[in-house]
Amino acid sequence: MVSTFHGLETAKRGMTTQQLALYTTGHNIANANTPGYTRQRVSFATAEPFPGAGLNRPQIPGQLGTGVEAGAIERVRDAFLDEQYRSENTKLGYYSSQSSALAKMEDILNEPSDTGLQAVMGKFWNSLQDLANNPQNSATRQAVASNGQMVAETFNYYYNSLERIQSDLGNEIDVTVGNINAIVNNINELNKQIAAVEPHGMLPNDLYDKRDLLVDQLSQLVNVKVHAVKPKQYGQASPQAAGLYEIEIVKADGTSYGSGAKLLSVNPADGSGAKLLSVNPADGSATVNSLTVKGSNGTGKPLEGNVSSITVGEVTINNLEFLGELGGLIESYGYKLDEDTKVSGYYSDMLEKLNNLAKAFASEFNKVHRQGFDLSGHKGKDFFEFAEKAAKTLKVNKNIMNDGSLIAAGFDADVANIPNDSIGVEKRESLLASSGNNSNAFRLANIMSKDFSQYESNVTLPDGMTNGSINSYYASIIGDLGVDAQSANRNKENVQVLVDSVQYNRQSVSGVSLDEELTNMITFQHAYNASARMITVIDEMLDKIINGMGVVGR
Amino acid sequence: MRVTQSMLSNNMLRNLSNNYNKMGKLQDQLTTQKRITRPSDDPVVAMLGLGYRDSLNKVQQYSRNISEATNWLDSTDDAISQGVKVLQRIRELTVQASNGTYEEAQRGAIAVEVDQLKEQLETIAQTQVGGKYIFNGENTNKAPAVGNFSDGDVELEIFDGIKLNVNTKGSELFKSVFETLDKLKSNLEDKTASDTDISGFLDTLDIEIDHFLKIQADVGAKQNRVDMMKDRLSSQETIATEIMSKNEDVEIEKVITELITQESVQRAALSVGARIIQPSLVDFLR
């Protein structure tokens, strides 16, 4: 026999469930523009029907439905799209940071233009030719000294500016590492909060959203893999519960570093014996390992020298395959990790190339200059002075700046290889009478297009400086920079398109559509009204039974 | 596929931003007149551009060197012409003096004039151009002493690796002329000299004049060569400038057309976006 108030209970269940759905719709509408928000949906399921099968069941036609109940309030989210988004986001971070670092380098080198190193070396060549035209003229000599100083100053400027930006990149690396560690700590906090809610069978959707947003931010900085862990001792967690996030830094292809560079690791409790009774809501003690990036000179903050080690807890990361913004910054800054044999990195490479260029040029120039003789019949001294970091310290000999007559424009084959003071008196007399000799001026002017293999100075030239001349080597430096920058820009644009496309898909699945919510709102409202009307009907029926039965003839 | 309002508005923003990006690039090109402003725009163009700038600079420098060379050669040519005039005047005087009717005093007067003309020739030997003594070999700072000219060649680079010898050595030009003139003078002053002695000098003077003219011809040949090189350089300069321009400069008509197209695309995007994002279901529910 069905209960008298069966219909009331069914209608009441209908009303409360539709009300729940309406409130959820209101929540969705309110959060339509919240970043990282996933739309929520109440899952309706029919309630347990009556009667259940058994010997003592009432003999009524069955089974009669008993209304609706809300299963769970879930997020509509596709985890696979999340993974896709994070991996594309990592590449975007990598190429963006490379692209912006290389753009700054291009701004400094400023070629082709009228003020770059190539134009300044051209003017120096012009002044040497003018010297050849008028070797005894003090104005042309002074011009050579001044133009030489301009060449030196251009090298200094390039080196110092690039070094300054490199140190800015170092600061950025420090800040990024700090961000990564801060985000991981936040995720750990959220894990704890989630672990306090899930064992009760509820789904903390808003906390999930916050946590996923943090992981998205983290993925731009470094490539992470997320592993959801449900500890064994987890109360009555619902099957849809997401669990606690474990975060590991992985290479771009997904493989781990060593035993796993885990920023955040969750320890599922083993379910053995005595521990079954322990009530530890977070059971899953979490370990947060901080990410440390060390430089070759220092211990960490601030970063000094090239990056020499990247560690997460006790695991070392030995290459830059984790991409992300951090990978791009380190690659631009300069690094020598365990797997590498030499320092590499866009900025450290360019600084070294500038040093090599300055050193080769100045050494050869000095050698040829010393082979000539000046206006007072003395052999030439060193024209340029430089120290360890040639491009940074290059300058023109002060004595030559003050006295242009010390420039050795003349050349005599007999005198070329004699050390300075041992020129005979007669020879000196004849040198004094050769103020119009300009052969050394030509030899000096020729250095810029002279092939490296014909260099007379003993400077050791590094790889890459075996063929070609100063001019062609510099052109190739600029060409390489252009190609690197162009490829970083192109990659960034391509990956941006992919990121936008995945984001589009994510929004399609999880975004709030106001029209859809309004439509749902109408649907739930009608269902609520209908259930309420049902109550009125049952009420009238009961009224009939209670007040209307058994009054025949009254 | 499910599409939400936020997707539509994000799309619109992104497309507008891309459009502005393109218009910004076109604006850059129009204002700088160059296709590339940084090496990453087109690395090959940038590298070639460096090379072309270098070539153009060299061609311009060689033009300057050539005017310097022209200076040398023209001055030398002029000096030699004057020298020839002097020698011809001396020859006239010698012809007069070898005329048997002249007496001692008149010969003496001729001797004085010959002396003056010899000094004139010495002055010519000490010609200066731009502070340089052009007949003194490499010793351009000091005036040559008579009969003691310094040696050495002065070369200027008039093209890549091509050097031209621009000076004329005084020792070459004036090698015997001062001796000859000294002898002539002493003969004129010598009372015992006969007419034939003096007329003997005519041949010597002719030889000297021929010598001067021969050297002048050499200088003339060099001047011709320099002129040809100058023509070649000026056409080289045009070619180098043209190549550089073709490499780097924009075609204005093309850029302006693209800019106009991009502007109309922008307007279309704005108006379509405005139409789409405004209406929603709320407008139609009672």
Mind explaining what this structure looks like?
The complex is a heterodimer of chains A (about 550) and B (about 290). In chain A, strand 8 and strand 9 form a beta hairpin. Chain A has about 550 residues and is an alpha+beta fold. The two termini of chain A are about 30 Å apart. Chain A is built from 13 helices and eleven strands. Chain B is mainly alpha-helical and about 290 residues long. The relative contact order of chain B is 0.15. Chains A and B meet through helix 2, helix 3, helix 11, helix 12 and helix 13 of A and helix 1, helix 2 and strand 3 of B.
How would you briefly describe this protein structure?
Chain A is of the alpha+beta class.
List keywords for this structure.
heterodimer, A: 554 residues, alpha+beta, 4-stranded antiparallel β-sheet, 3-stranded antiparallel β-sheet, B: 286 residues, mainly alpha, two-stranded antiparallel ribbon, two-stranded antiparallel sheet, 4 strands, rod-shaped
